[in-house]
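forwarding from the other thread:

> can someone predict this with zinc ion?

sure thing
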Amino acid sequence: MTMIDRRAALAMVAAGLASPLRAAPLRYTIDPQLVAPDLWVVRGVDGPIDGANGGAIANISILRTEVGAVLVDCGPSLRYGQQLKTVAEALTGKPVIRVYLTHLHPDHIYGAAAFDRSIVAATPALARSLETLGPSFSDGMYRLLGDWMRGTEFAAPGKVLGEDHETFGDRRLDLYPLAGHSEADLAIMDTTTGMLIAGDLVFHDRAPSTPHADIGRWLASLDRLGTIGHRTVIPGHGPVDPTSSAAIDQTRDWLSWLRETLDRAVAEGLDPVEAGNLPIPERFAVLKAARYELQRSVAHFFSRIEEQTLPRVDLKR
Ligand SMILES: [Zn+2]
């Protein structure tokens, strides 16, 4: 090998080490599964966002109606949104006419960049959150995902949902603006099939993530979802629940355990590392990413609980 060849080879190795994401095949696998008549789910990877999955960890729903295709959530990036649009239109034989955003987390909504803003819809509360938080999330996603995110610009939704349902042809979708997983969560009931598209209010066999959670409000929202008369549930993460309640109950069980466990850890004077290593009950062994999410939840909640339960004596006057 000549000197120049060696230099060139070393430079290539160094470039490869410096940005391993460049070597990734930047194409998402979008494989919709039919879960009810004219309703498909594109399953996300049941793990954390990383350079191998390109951020495609959330479940996306595709509905075919007489007048067009309807999407619930749209993935993490422009590239994902473009691929999703192509797949959804080929699958349904119709143009995409509505894209609902369930909440502000980037794995669900940055694909909106691939669609005309006028068809991208959010509740008033979500639209407000996105105005302040939406643009800053894209920075974090670029850092995590590099080239997967190329060209992704956050665009505010063009349709703010004031109504409690929308009808497309003979398909009526009931809208439930709730909260708890985040400041503004949207759940959607497809009245034709009885499927509840729950966004991240419901996780199934995958531990719930809590970066913007209010556990009390989240539990109240789960109670509300238990009353709407759906048959089956499409969770934000994890497999479709063929029953009306198993995934909702599992999410409630984890959140109740998490709240109790963190409160007790603070009361007993554990530090965050000890709290993150606490044993996880055997019944949660089916939950993917359980340890990862427990440790993240400690990071999200620990200092807040300490402030509430152990107020500083010197500030109490
Ligand atoms: Zn989320």
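Residues 20 and 51 are 9 Å apart (CA to CA). thats all i got for now
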